[in-house]
Design brief:
The protein is mainly α and 257 residues long. It is 63% helix and 0% strand. The chain is built from ten helices and no strands.
Length: 257
């Protein structure tokens, strides 16, 4: 793909996300009064551009190699039986299975110091909105995307199911970071919501709400939390550089200490 075409695609994606999420954040703000150009907006824009221009291709290439390495582990007959199910049943299965893997993998990111080096970059955001969702170290992205797609790779779900899941989870990840609090009532027990993930980013604690699409895993394993108000502050307790390049190098500097 040529550079102009790539830049056009990135600009189109940015405009699309603005048109979808900015009106939601204005109509249903979780934290009222938060400006569009809030503190560290430019850092998160750098992460957005880095994801779309630099790292997405590398992540997809590594995932394809990962999938190739898992090919053949599960017997072909079982994989054929999975592929022969109705598409909607396959979609439900892959979402539930990937949620299970992501839940436990996410808990490990908060418990294993090596994983936390990279995941802490994501948690360093002190203001949450749709753009802050993109603050993620590319190696952290590889880890998370590997877990999300592990069930699909192992069981041989069709490519269209896998592609649809990746696209859906990408939009969902942006939604749960957005500065939005929708009046969904008891549905939040079954459907992930921004307020759940906002409490996961609470500066004052380091546990809970590890699930993604649905909070069922948090409910099952006792890590669900959803007060009726927003956290007082977001971010992490430790020191971290406040510029893009510094945050990209931060995990490796910690490793050398």
């Amino acid at each position: 793909m040529s550079l102009p075409a790539m830049l056009f695609g990135v600009g189109g994606s940015f405009l699309f996300l603005c048109l979808v999420f900015y009106p939601l954040e204005k109509a249903f703000p979780a934290k009222r009064g938060q400006r569009f150009f809030r503190p560290e907006w430019w850092i998160d824009l750098c992460f957005f551009l880095g994801q779309y221009l630099l790292w997405s291709g590398l992540v997809l290439w590594l995932l394809s190699r990962f999938g190739d390495g898992l090919d053949g582990i599960v017997p072909a007959g079982f994989r054929a039986a999975v592929a022969g199910q109705p598409w909607w049943l396959q979609a439900v299965e892959v979402i539930l299975l990937s949620d299970f893997f992501v839940y436990w993998g996410h808990r490990l990111q908060h418990r294993v110091p090596f994983l936390w080096r990279f995941h802490s970059v994501h948690h360093s955001a002190e203001h949450l909105d749709w753009l802050a969702a993109h603050r993620e170290h590319p190696l952290d992205t590889v880890y998370t995307m590997g877990l999300i797609n592990l069930p699909a790779f192992l069981l041989g779900f069709p490519l269209e199911i896998l592609t649809g899941l990746i696209a859906f989870r990408g939009i969902w990840a942006i939604y749960i970071h957005s500065n939005v609090r929708l009046p969904i009532g008891p549905l939040r027990w079954f459907i992930g919501a921004p307020e759940l993930h906002h409490w996961h980013h609470d500066r004052a604690r380091d546990a809970g709400n590890y699930a993604n699409i649905s909070p069922l895993m948090d409910l099952a394993f006792g890590t669900y939390r959803c007060p009726d108000h927003e956290p007082e502050s977001f971010g992490i307790q430790e020191e971290i550089p406040r510029e893009y390049l510094g945050q990209m190098l931060h995990p490796f500097r910690r490793g050398r200490k």
